[in-house]
Design brief:
The structure is a homodimer of 367-residue chains. Chain A is α/β, with parallel strands linked by helices. The first copy, chain A, folds into two domains: 15-223, TIM Barrel; 239-335, Lyase, Ornithine Decarboxylase, Chain A, domain 1. Chain A contains eleven helices and 19 strands. In chain A, strands 3-4-5-6-7-8-9 form a seven-stranded parallel beta sheet. In chain A, strands 1, 11, 14, 17, 18 and 19 form a six-stranded mixed beta sheet that branches. At the A-B interface, α2, α4, β11, β12 and α11 of A face α2, α4, β11, β12 and α11 of B.
Chain lengths: 367, 367
């Protein structure tokens, strides 16, 4: 959509970095197959660009959230395994067969519906089974697991390809729930027929080999987010966001900046207005909190983030550099995604998936 | 993009409500022309649908942020006035002429560039002049206004169609900055050649006729947001967001819900998992704070908002209603956009512009 050069901000996405991250994750879990999670348009980065790169790096198993996303991915990659985390909506089983989508069965009702469809078609189509071990979100709760273990015939008539569960607190390596969930998952596996076992997402991969099982399924780490809060980020940075300066003003007399007059300039200073705002996914919570970098100098966001604009204090930057048309790093080498997320009081995942449509998107690296 | 019926959430946009809001705003400022602000893809609602509705309601003057948006709008509406708030990037003046885009000149440098272009072309093309009266964001600062007033020849060679400024605190009717800015704007107008004067956006329209001048330019109020914090919302609601229940679980034993285990279920309760998350613009800050409504019953969001999912406590809803496939109002008659924004610790503007791409979008009303 954006006209070349007219865009106020440039989002550069490193496909080579995504490929390198995939390979690093494979090495980190050498005993397991490494799937790729590309839901939410590959965490906002463009599934049409990202999925082929993962395929070229060796990825053959994918996870998305919805059937819509699965259909889109099938058109991109005809020969991979595609799992649909939200399962098959009742009545749409034939669509799953048509596009060879593997539903993640999240409860016994879904198990029954998929089984009935497969029996009616006389086709043992594959499915994944999701056990809830501590999220209370999707997946069979403990009582349904009991009922399934007591009557395993409920799994007959289709191919139980994968059994998975999901960690709630994996980014915190010391959280006691990790071990509790691990024990619950192992116990559940012992009570069910054999299948590919999958437990770890990005963070879980770094909790150690006992969390890896047969299949790991990273998303966030592929896109450069730090998998553990307690260690330096081992992943390559994927995203750079640069905003263009529209105007620089000298403020000599005390005055306020932006909506709500939340920032007051006391002494002489220079304020740069940059063309990116919360409508571009540059979250409003970054107001008076985040920063940009210009020529290696930190330039604090002053005042509120507007819909299309932010204002930065560029007093410490040389006037030759802080001028109309120059690019400011809003996410970049000096302020990685995870740090910007902290400034915004959220997580890098939200920042990634909210990156907006008005940026000029540039993909770099072979892929 | 989303397949019919497969989407996890449905966004319904009332075009008739937008039309009604435009007409109400016209009545509220009877002495002025009412423009329409459709930047950021009409605040996320789809400029291709919204702009023609405003045109049919009588709107002939539009504002967008960037030239990209202007070009898109020109293709939709060949015969309206389109103002570009971020101005013309240097070197792109010919593009503005080609698409008949009116640059908002935000500083003297921009004034000089536009003037030089018009003189070189021997065409007095229209432009708007933006004076900063208290935002310190875009617009001529006071010293540049002084220089312009002293040497008004800088405005010769092009058509000065509009002079505008922007209020920083207009949603708070009692804020002293409103009157200060008004005085500064009036004073500035008295020092410059005559042109269409524009001061009020949505909120300013409700501050009284002295704020109206010749042209008002609402955005937020068109889309149903409340223009003043101190009064009941006079605008018609435009947006309804309904999320589909994927799964309902009974929780009998104490356990935690979601990432980070931030919510603990103490007694027997039922948790519904709904297919909408922060990747859909359902902001993560709604975790443990916002709510949905099901059959008129408030269902609190429990635990964190995930990328694709939220979890609601539906204990108070009849089990017949709280079941897989049912729709929960996430934004709707019981929880209007402004209230959801308060729950998310932000403003309705951010919520609107972040509404995501995975929803099934349904437009209702003639337009």
């Amino acid at each position: 959509m954006p006209h070349d050069d007219l865009s106020g901000a440039i989002l550069t996405i490193g496909l080579d970095a995504i490929s390198a991250n995939y390979k690093l994750l494979c090495k980190q879990a050498p005993g397991a197959t490494t799937a790729g999670v590309v839901k939410a348009n590959a965490y906002g980065l463009g599934v049409d660009k990202v999925a082929p790169v993962l395929f070229d790096a060796g990825c053959r198993v994918f996870f998305v959230a919805s059937a819509d996303e699965g259909i889109q991915l099938r058109e991109l990659l005809p020969d991979v395994e595609i799992n649909i985390l939200n399962g098959a909506p009742a009545g749409h089983e034939a669509l799953f067969r048509e596009y060879r989508l593997i539903p993640v069965l999240n409860n016994l009702e879904a198990v029954g519906l998929w089984r009935a469809f497969c029996i009616a078609q006389n086709q043992p189509l594959p499915a994944a089974l999701h056990l809830d071990t501590g999220m209370a979100r999707l997946g069979l709760p403990p009582d349904e697991l009991d009922r399934l273990a007591e009557d395993p015939d409920q799994l007959k008539g289709f191919e139980l390809r994968t059994i998975l569960s999901h960690l709630a607190c994996a980014s915190d390596a010391e959280h006691p729930l990790n071990q509790e969930q691990l024990a619950a998952f192992k116990n559940a596996l012992s009570r069910l027929p054999s299948a590919t076992a999958s437990f770890a997402a990005s963070s879980g991969i770094f909790l150690g080999p006992q969390y890896h099982f047969d299949l790991v399924r990273p998303g966030a780490a592929l896109y450069g987010l730090c998998p553990l809060t307690s260690v330096p980020n081992p992943m390559a940075q994927v995203v750079r966001l640069q905003g263009k300066i529209l105007q620089v003003r000298d403020v000599d007399t005390p005055q306020t900046v932006g909506y709500g007059a939340t920032h007051r300039v006391a002494g002489p200073s220079r304020i740069a207005t940059v063309a990116a705002g919360y409508a571009d996914g540059f979250l409003r919570s970054l107001g008076n909190s985040g920063c940009g970098y210009l020529g290696g100098v930190r330039t604090p966001i002053v005042g509120r983030v507007s819909m299309d604009l932010i204002t930065l204090d560029v007093t410490d930057v040389s006037p030759k550099q802080a001028r109309t048309g120059e690019l400011v790093d809003l996410i970049g080498p000096d302020n990685p995604l995870d740090q910007v997320a902290i400034d915004a009081d959220t997580i890098g995942y939200e920042l990634l998936t909210s990156l907006g449509a008005r940026y000029r998107r540039t993909y770099v690296g072979a892929g």
